[in-house]
Amino acid sequence: MRIVVDLNRCQGYAQCVYLAHEVFKLNGTESLTYDPNPDDARRLQVERAAAACPVRAIMIDRLDGAERGAAS
Amino acid sequence: MPEETPWQQALRYANRADPYPFYAELRKTPVARQPDGTYVVSTYREIVALLHDPRVSSDVRRLPARAPAPAEPGAEPITEAVIELEPNIITCDPPEHDRDRRMMTRHFYGPTDAPHQISDLEPDIRRIVAGLLDGMRGKTRIDVVDEFAYPLPVKLICKILGVPLEDEPRFHTWIETALDALDLGPEAASEEMRSRVAGARGSVKELEQFMAGLLRQYAEQPGPGMISAMVHNGGPGGRMSEGVLASNAVLLLFAGHETTVNLIAHSVLTLLRHPEALEKLRRRPDLIVPAVEELLRFESSVQFWHTRSAVEDIEIAGTTIPAGAPIFLVYGSGNRDPERFTDPDRLDLERPDNEHLGFSQGIHFCFGAPLARLEVQVAVGEFVRRVENPRLVVDPPPYRHNQIFRGPRHVLVDIDGIRD
């Protein structure tokens, strides 16, 4: 699966980190790094993380609309 | 008697089940000065602006002396009762806030490079929820609050903190007595509320002493859970003073379950009021993740927050909030603001762009949000999957008195059975 985080929107709430720490990491207290192509086995975790983002900065499979349809 | 403002009406107990029409009226004046000098902010944009404004303080110690007009007579005693405790992370500002919250975050979620202590609890959560639902077998009527919404969060928070579950009956009574005594509306001056406030002082004191005792016990003999860890390992910022530690431990214990109880109870209530949404969730269980976000928006467990004040004059939405004035941010109203949410009174489990205020925003964003989400996703998801033909018995259900931590006292539901 593919994810994109809008780092201009990200405010460092770290909610995604608590839900999917293998995919999202916080460096220090503010800057977020993430795996843009996490394994599909982590989909539920990543979807939970995206829904938990207070500023809705995490986008899943937006780059390729067909991928989401194929996966679900 | 002068006519009551929409805010005062929203706070009346008779309107607890449905404050939303009064919020709609309130939003016509986004920043509304009340007769007691409090500024009530009810629109999404203004709430968010103030949540990120460094000219707004959350420090409860700034409140009484700086209030420009005397608070309503009945509101005074409980404000005093609250500040007998040292400030906790909700009621203080940076830099103390940042230092204390950072330390608590590490003990709650785990070290920064592997913060998975809370997500690791999912199997425990599933086991507790399964046990609660199994226990309903053979029943035709259940109380969703007492039999389902309450036991899960309280068991979990006790385990996380290291508070003995045997003490639950005691601290439950103290917390309930304290919550029932807080009234910031026109009914605060009533005989009934005054006697509740008198009773609540003792309860707050007992809760504080109970926690102080537990801290001392863990200081002598380390044990499992977050409280013992906080006593022994303050981290780079040093340890918290005993008073601050006790105050934050009380906050974690109380906020760590009360708000979740209300969210689970409101979620079931709301779904039973919207059969098409319930059916959709039954057919598509994966919708539970966005569904919980919508339920957080629709019936927020914290309706507003009351310890903020202006550090200097703040101009906003055509009004100047004078330095020192108390500011109430009404999350429950911002979440129903049509300027931000399309068709806000409609429940839409797939609502796009749902940047709700159910956990607030800014530096005081709900500390326990990841735990609450996990608990409610599992609890409500399993309730929907396993409970056969649930029907509301009383609608609206009776509500608890508290205006901030708003939730039903009971939600009676008739059921046909429990699926495996």
TrEMBL record, chain A:
<keyword id="KW-0813">Transport</keyword>
<keyword id="KW-0411">Iron-sulfur</keyword>
<dbReference type="InterPro" id="IPR051269">
    <property type="entry name" value="Fe-S_cluster_ET"/>
</dbReference>
<keyword id="KW-0249">Electron transport</keyword>
<keyword id="KW-0003">3Fe-4S</keyword>
<protein>
    <submittedName>
        <fullName>Ferredoxin</fullName>
    </submittedName>
</protein>
<keyword id="KW-0408">Iron</keyword>
<dbReference type="Pfam" id="PF13459">
    <property type="entry name" value="Fer4_15"/>
</dbReference>
<keyword id="KW-0479">Metal-binding</keyword>
From TrEMBL, chain B:
<keyword id="KW-0560">Oxidoreductase</keyword>
<dbReference type="InterPro" id="IPR002397">
    <property type="entry name" value="Cyt_P450_B"/>
</dbReference>
<keyword id="KW-0503">Monooxygenase</keyword>
<keyword id="KW-0479">Metal-binding</keyword>
<keyword id="KW-0408">Iron</keyword>
<dbReference type="InterPro" id="IPR001128">
    <property type="entry name" value="Cyt_P450"/>
</dbReference>
<protein>
    <submittedName>
        <fullName>Cytochrome P450</fullName>
    </submittedName>
</protein>
<comment type="similarity">
    <text>Belongs to the cytochrome P450 family.</text>
</comment>
<keyword id="KW-0349">Heme</keyword>
<dbReference type="Pfam" id="PF00067">
    <property type="entry name" value="p450"/>
</dbReference>
<dbReference type="InterPro" id="IPR036396">
    <property type="entry name" value="Cyt_P450_sf"/>
</dbReference>
<dbReference type="InterPro" id="IPR017972">
    <property type="entry name" value="Cyt_P450_CS"/>
</dbReference>
